[in-house]
Records
---
Amino acid sequence: MSSRDLFTTWASLVACLCEQLDPAPPCFCGMFVGAAAMPPDSCLCGGTGDRCGTAWVGLASAYPSSAFPTPDVTTRGSCTAPLAWRFNVGVVRCQPGPGMSGKPPGEAAYALAAQRAADDLEAAYRTIECCFPGKPSNVLLGQWQPLGNPDGLCAGGSWPVAVWSVV
């Protein structure tokens, strides 16, 4: 039984995500370390239009697992079991907001934002498919989680995915 290492798996997911978002990646696409659901200041990286936003792969948790995706709970098993990692593969973008006059954006602006959000959700899904082809028993995809900041001007979501280190 061979194993993959954490950093290589993480970096592969990032490379796949950035590739899947091309030709309109947000201004930041990379690794995120931390407990937050999404990187802070995700929509303040300096991009405009479609480039405004953040795409990331963050490590959410790690645990020993002899029978993926179940965590080992015994001391004996947990010391020798292969590891499983749970990542969040996410994308958030700037959303339409009031103009300088305070007037809300029109329906077309909201429709474009919804289309971009749907495209990003599908790109994040393809990321997981392309990184682990033919390995369905070593990957467990969770449910898409909508994310956004309180003012509503930065929104998107992330896919939680568990990956077993056994290849």
---
Amino acid sequence: MEVNTGADGGVRNDAAKPASSAARDVRGAGKRERPLRIIAALGWVAVGAASGGMAFAACWPARLDETGTVWVAVSWVAFMIETFAMHAGVAIAAVVGFALLTRRWRMALAALLLSLWCGWGVIGTLAGQGLRAVTAGTEIEEPAALRVLSMNVLYSRADVDRVMAVIERERPDVLLIQEWTDAAETRYGQRLRAMFPHAMVWAQNDAFGQASFSTLEMRDERAYLSPRIMNPQQSFVVEHSGAAVRVVNVHLLPPVSIGYFRLQRSETAALAEFARERLGEGERLVLAGDFNATWASAHGRALRDAGLGSAHEVAGVGLGGTWPMNAGPLARLGAIGLDQVLVGGGLGVRSMRVLENIGSDHAPVLAELTVRTVSRSK
């Protein structure tokens, strides 16, 4: 047997070299794989947490009249999960991408299903719009639409020129403004009264003043809707196409604290009760403004159960996001639909649009509504 000796006469074992090199390769691969294993573990944590959150939000009963602190706090968590489910779906899509790139197929499948679940509302909305576009036939002549424009002017800090440009271009029959202050009266009052002969104005130097303007005569004007709603919700009736239509300028409290959220829940319940009563009496009803909640939330379900429908679901385009508009150029991509137009009682929706940024944190919304004949079974 041939034995190799080194320069110092010692025995040199060349066979040990490949084994030593392989060990180094294994250690190197282990070091490279370790960050991927950590990311994968975090991915599974994200998938598990998001799945649990979505299941919890789906099963949690709203009970908007419940005022207990613990119940309201847990409901706030469910509300936020429902509100930002789409954003969670986008985040989970990143886990899908990582899993596919690293050939973790079980993780990819689980994350994909979860992402679809989170975005199911968005998928349904876009699918409905696509179906409307495919099945749309020849337009038939309809009565003139009642054009309702709603805008939140951010404590009257919105850009005056942009606000007026939208109003002058769209020429609505009814204009509903939230966050109307004394400053708004100075900036807009005279110009709007020249355009709209009928007005209800309630200035407050906080976030809850309102102003409603109309080219049509207003009657049965009310500043407050219910004792359970602490701030003005202007209500009035106009005549359109020979029919009376009640319009409500909505601005509910934002869910910025547990205390505010408790009040917002009560306000939404009162609004739903008001709608149910009015629709039960055969009124045609429009609720438009800043609801500070999405249609997909428990608050939206309460209003839907009262007999109202979303104009955006019927005839909108895109996701209908309106807030926040002052968070940079990409704000609209992740915006949520807090500003809505809801209808009931024989009103049809011809179109529903989210308009351009007016320098507020909310985008304006414009709906074209038509009067439909409702047949009632005896």
---
Amino acid sequence: MTVMAARTIVISLCVTSIALAGGAAASAGPKQSGEVIVIDEKPPRPAVEAKAINYSPRKTPPYSDEAILSDAWTRAWLLLDIDARGNVTRFKFLKRPGYQLDDIAARQVFGLRFEPARDRAGRPQRTWIVWGIEWPSYFWLIDRIGVASGMPPIVGFPPRSLAAHVPCKGSGPMNVGSIHPAYRDCSLPDLSRRTFAGLPWLYPRVAR
């Protein structure tokens, strides 16, 4: 299964947002640094889901030096709390990407702007969504498409991602005959209430 980077489940190798269907979560008042947990309830499920308006699914997110040097193919999953104006006010990591990419992921999601979710009366409302960010192997992109600034393109008929043939981690042997052998991170978020309810909310850092 593929997903397009930073980035509705729309599974297609770019980043994916999934409307979250249930449960309660945790959080506390924001602090300038640190992660705090407080109990609060999930907002009502909207009639119309929030839609990102300043996001390009064809662009790769920025890479850390460690991700480049490790030639890592990795993914982050985040639970976003989006207010009635379409701003991301806080988030939880459902899966951290590793490779010193956490801060990059945070900057990516706090920079997103959304067409707000709406209730049955058409009024803007707060909502939660799950958002994925994918970092394909930097050097796989260089070898296969010549640049690392774009996600693997959709090719062929029926249309499919150029990365569709890359095996998922743990799925079997690496294709050593490939131009650039690699394993993809095909992980999906764990949406069980027990998992995400106790995870800390992260807030934008306030400049001093």
---
Amino acid sequence: MVLELLSQRILALMQGFFHIGLRVRRNEVPFNKYLFLAYYSMQKKYYFIITGIIIIGTTAYYGFLRDPVVIKNYPLGGETIVVFGDSLVEGIGSSKKGGFVALLEHRLQKPVSNLGRSGDTTETALGRVQDVIAEDPDLVIVLLGGNDAIRRVPLEMTVENLRTIIRTIQAEGAAVVLLGVQGALIRDRFDNDFRVLAKEEGAVYIPNILEDIYRNPSRMFDGIHPNDEGYGIITNRVYPIISELLTGTYYE
């Protein structure tokens, strides 16, 4: 993020000098030799230096400084998949039963167990974790939190409930994929905490699966649930990651 912001600032600065030089050439502004020299210094002398710094910094960040998440129980021991969650997992709003879970099963050409229950919060889902364990899964996709937001459950409680769910599943040998969901009307208040939680617990994290779906009438069945098009978009976001996990080619 820091490097990205630095790159944007440097690019904006260089573009500014470029436009200044262009306006001088066109006699749109009075000639100023110091400004003109600064423009050419930036364009000719420092361009490659700045580019080199950005490249080296980016390489260092991703190669040495960035701490990759170590996914617990990965590579997988098998291909038994369970999706655990609320009405978004159950598929409310889709014309065919199962929503994105059914679409994912079709794309993978493998059975995917749907343990979605409408209305579940992270707290009520805790009481159903043993249903997940009973499936003897190798990979569990967890999608919860939307109803916590609706009921204004404190964020800390939501996160700790999810932590317990993730740890309970992992203790039985399964890898966990945590799906992000928009936790507020305007902005996604869950994203940072869910991301940190996934990293701390060694789970795969897929950010806000409702991005560009929620509050888009053409992709929503009602005020909460996607329609077929919306569930199709969710499937497109989830499928590549699950496919990589199953084939052992996933890399954080």
